[in-house]
Amino acid sequence: MADSPQFATGEENGLLFPAVCKSLKVNDSFTLSGIPPEAFEYRLGNRSSLDWVIDQYQVMEDKHSGIRSDPNRADDPDYIVRMVGQVIRVSVETVRIVKSLPAAR
Prior knowledge:
Low-confidence stretches: 1-20
Oligomer: single chain
Helix content: 25-40%
Structural class: alpha+beta
Radius of gyration: 16 Å
Shape: elongated
């Protein structure tokens, strides 16, 4: 997983919308698909939790120092895929719980 994950996305008002965001390209040979739309309903501020993960978990290099930040773990190559699965599950479960709560009076 040397590459940074990327969504197959569309945009509406600068935000990702779930009808298009159904897959996550991890690298050239591995794509996670079948991501439920509910995973994008759970929001942290104005972005979904998956948007935050994609934004933060990228291979980056500082322009000035040349220091490379790589979230991939040599000792655990499945780390990011496992974490994305956990984020999806927590997001979907949170949306389910919130929808099951009675309406506020």
